[in-house]
Each structure stands twice: as structure tokens, then as C-alpha cells.
Amino acid sequence: GMPHAVLGDYYFARGRFAEAEPHLRVAIDRVPELPVLRAQVAAIFAARGDDRAAVGQLRECLARDPGQPKC
Question: pTM here?
Fold first, then answer.
């Protein structure tokens, strides 16, 4: 879980979304208590124009951590 979260965050921070997404998805499956990962996936979805999927990820992020400022 965490190695994927670190790699996903690394690629995400560099705008390498295609490389970040699979790592972030694995990390979400393995470490669901880190809702910020969903916010990153939401940003990737939004960047490629999939607003519906982005909103779904943000809703799940907020549901898991209503105080999370990145959601």
C-alpha cells in the first residue's frame, strides 16, 4: 500500500498522471484510510475531463475524512 502511495504521489507531483494513477488506485485499495489519495485521483480524472468520476472520488474522500482540506 504505502510504496504505491509514495510512487503515486511522486508521479502526481510531477504531473505524470498516467504513471501516478495505477499506483494511487492500488494504494486506495490497500490503504483506504488515506483519503488524500482519492483527491489526487479526482484531480487526474478532472484533468482528463471525467468530471463525474472526479466528483465521485471527492465525495468518497469527504465521506472518509470530512475535515480533509485536500478534498
Answer: 0.88
